[in-house]
Amino acid sequence: MAACLTIGFARADKPGNPAAVSDDNGEYRDANGYPTYKVDKDGKVDFYTYIGYIRYTANCMHCHGPDGLGSTYAPALVNSLKHMNYTDVMTTVASGKKDVTASSDLVMPALGQDKNVMCFIDEIYIYLRARSDGAVGRGRPTDHMPKPKGFSENEDSCLG
């Protein structure tokens, strides 16, 4: 997620209640079917939130800043996700977005062909959603649930 996910979506629905209502081998979904996080009372995060942090740091941080807090180059995604649902995020990341005004020229490149992003887009979304909701603090999560069965096979299949 290189340049900017902006909050200027007129049609965007808020992401909704993040409470997990289903669990498919450690991958949680909310009532709308969107990927979501699970954080135990002791702060232990689900594996997808943890990998989301790793993948965000590798692929998005250089523009959007540490922990999704933004930079002089791109907006804070922790704020953007308060106004964007999963579909909006997927569309923006895959297709890109250009927001040109008299005072700025913000460009989010299309990353739909970038396997390092798209193979982990759910995980990145989950991490940013947890950050946006305040469920996960700054920095690398200190503890996480074990890697779910089948995660590595899915990862290998997507990356090729």
UniProtKB/TrEMBL annotation:
<dbReference type="InterPro" id="IPR009056">
    <property type="entry name" value="Cyt_c-like_dom"/>
</dbReference>
<dbReference type="InterPro" id="IPR022411">
    <property type="entry name" value="C-typ_cyt_methanol_metab-rel"/>
</dbReference>
<feature type="domain" description="Cytochrome c">
    <location>
        <begin position="38"/>
        <end position="132"/>
    </location>
</feature>
<keyword id="KW-0349">Heme</keyword>
<dbReference type="GO" id="GO:0009055">
    <property type="term" value="F:electron transfer activity"/>
</dbReference>
<feature type="compositionally biased region" description="Basic and acidic residues">
    <location>
        <begin position="140"/>
        <end position="152"/>
    </location>
</feature>
<protein>
    <submittedName>
        <fullName>C-type cytochrome, methanol metabolism-related</fullName>
    </submittedName>
</protein>
<keyword id="KW-0408">Iron</keyword>
<feature type="region of interest" description="Disordered">
    <location>
        <begin position="137"/>
        <end position="160"/>
    </location>
</feature>
<dbReference type="GO" id="GO:0046872">
    <property type="term" value="F:metal ion binding"/>
</dbReference>
<dbReference type="InterPro" id="IPR036909">
    <property type="entry name" value="Cyt_c-like_dom_sf"/>
</dbReference>
<dbReference type="GO" id="GO:0020037">
    <property type="term" value="F:heme binding"/>
</dbReference>
<keyword id="KW-0479">Metal-binding</keyword>
